[in-house]
């Protein structure tokens, strides 16, 4: 039985099988045939540039040695240590990121600054990002005064006397969650939105405009703002609220956005 067949019998995915085979081939290309001296093998794996690539290489070599019916305990111990080191490194980077990022209080102070400077477009952009955790695409929206001026494909902010209705038809996961509607009654927002005819246009350099809007808080992106909101409202209700606002399932938020 060859190595590929051995992996297939373990019911591994096609992608995982291909990864193991490629890793073993890469090791052999660099260091020759795989012997049974685990100290030598580990010393070679240690030459890999990152913890992640060392873990991956060690895992594939371990599978190969199991196929050869050889002892892999030292490799298992090595993988365990690499995993622990990876977690420590991740925790360190997370702590550093949290230290460097602005807080919600900082963002709200910046909103006041933008409003006082009468930079109404930047105010509206930052307001929508922090309150509804929207993506860049969601901000391509036209300001109108009546629902009759809207359609079912684009984004709009319908401005009334005392409230605005933010309608999103065109956003990343609209195919899954459908149109989203938010009612906004904030007085500063109402004044600001009445000063502009659109939030962003399709022809705008969206990244540049958003960086201008967030320049006072480090030029952070919409994804970073979502992480900040999650980290400082880290409850099930907070998770559900961001999930609904952003159009992202809770599992994805936990895995990809939550920085705590």
Q: What this model shows, in words?
A:
With 260 residues, the protein is of the alpha+beta class. Helices cover 59% and strands 7% of the residues. The chain has 13 helices and 4 strands. The radius of gyration is 26 Å and the shape is elongated.
Given the helix and strand composition, which structural class is it? alpha+beta
User: Helix proportion of residues, in percent?
Assistant: 55-70%
Could you give a short account of the major beta sheet? Answer: 4 strands, mixed
Oligomer: single chain
Strand-residue proportion:
5-15%
Please render the helix and strand layout as text.
Layout: H1 3-9, H2 14-31, H3 38-45, H4 51-67, H5 73-100, H6 104-116, H7 120-132, E1 141-144, E2 155-159, E3 164-168, H8 174-177, E4 180-184, H9 187-193, H10 206-213, H11 222-232, H12 236-246, H13 250-257
Parallel strand pairs: 1-2
Antiparallel strand pairs: 2-3, 3-4
Helix pairs in contact: 1-2, 2-4, 4-5, 6-7, 7-10
Quick recap:
This protein is an alpha+beta fold.
């Amino acid at each position: 039985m060859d190595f590929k067949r051995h992996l297939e019998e373990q019911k591994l995915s096609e992608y995982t099988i291909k990864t193991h085979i490629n890793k073993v081939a890469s090791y052999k290309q660099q260091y020759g045939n795989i012997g049974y001296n685990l100290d030598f093998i580990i010393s070679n794996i240690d030459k890999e540039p990152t913890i992640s690539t060392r873990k991956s290489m060690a895992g594939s070599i371990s599978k190969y040695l199991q196929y050869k019916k050889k002892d892999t305990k030292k490799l298992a111990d090595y993988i365990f240590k690499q995993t622990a080191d990876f977690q420590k490194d991740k925790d360190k980077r997370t702590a550093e990121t949290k230290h460097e990022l602005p807080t919600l209080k900082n963002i709200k102070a910046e909103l006041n600054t933008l409003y006082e400077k009468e930079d109404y477009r930047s105010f509206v952009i930052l307001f929508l990002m922090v309150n509804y955790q929207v993506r860049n695409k969601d901000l391509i929206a036209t300001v109108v005064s009546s629902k009759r001026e809207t359609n079912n494909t684009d984004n709009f902010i319908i401005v009334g006397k005392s409230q605005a209705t933010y309608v999103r038809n065109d956003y990343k996961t609209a195919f899954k969650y459908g149109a989203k509607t938010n009612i906004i009654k904030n007085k500063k927002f109402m004044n600001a939105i009445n000063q502009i005819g659109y939030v962003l246009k399709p022809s705008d350099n969206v990244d540049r405009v958003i960086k201008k809007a967030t320049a006072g808080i480090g030029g952070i992106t919409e994804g970073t703002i979502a992480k900040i909101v999650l980290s400082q409202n880290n409850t099930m209700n907070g998770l559900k609220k961001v999930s609904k606002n952003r159009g992202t399932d809770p599992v994805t938020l936990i895995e990809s956005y939550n920085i705590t």
